[in-house]
Structures are given as C-alpha cells and as structure tokens.
Amino acid sequence: MAMACGGREALQVDLCVAESGIAGPSSNPERPGGLYWIAVSSAGGERTERHVFPGDRETTKLAAAEDALRLVLEAIDHR
Question: For position 54, which CATH number holds?
C-alpha cells in the first residue's frame, strides 16, 4: 500500500496501482513462488489483495498484471 500511496502522491495522480511479488520459481513456505501483493490507492479509498498464483514465472506475472488491472477498473467504477 505504501508504494501505491507514495506513487499517487509523488506523481500527483488520481489513482495509482502497485504490485510486489515473487514470480518464481524460487520459493519457501513463507514466500512461495507466485505470491503477489497488489494495492490500489485513489481518492475513493485504498485496497490491497494477497494472491498466490499457480504456474511458471510468465504465468504468474501475467496473472498479477491482469488482477492489478481488475483492481484499477473496480476503483474507477466506484468513483
């Protein structure tokens, strides 16, 4: 959430999305491959989600990007 809020403030924009994760294949029980945190910050509020996407490196990166875009669209719809 700090990245999304900080990005929104630094860029002076209405909405900012940020994600951080472990695409894989390396992992451990506390931080498995495919683990992503996605956050969106807007004037309407803030939201974070934690996901563990299955698949290889490219698949998890695509899934995280798609989910980040879903959060952006939801934030826009709730304005």
Answer: 3.90.950.20
d(CA 48, CA 42): 12
Cβ(24)–Cβ(57) below 8 Å: yes
Q: Give the pLDDT mean for 2-15.
A: 96
- CA–CA separation, 77 and 79 (whole Å): 6
Kindly report, residue by residue over 48-79, the tens digit of the pLDDT. 999 999 999 999 999 999 999 999 999 998 76
- Encode 14-40: b = buried (16+ Cβ within 10 Å), e = exposed: ebbbbbebbbbeeeeeeeebbbbebbb
Query: Dihedral through CA 47, CA 52, CA 54, CA 56, nearest 10?
Result: 90
Where in the sequence is the domain holding 33, given as residue range(s)?
Answer: 2-77
Whether the predicted model's global pTM rises above the 0.90 cut: no
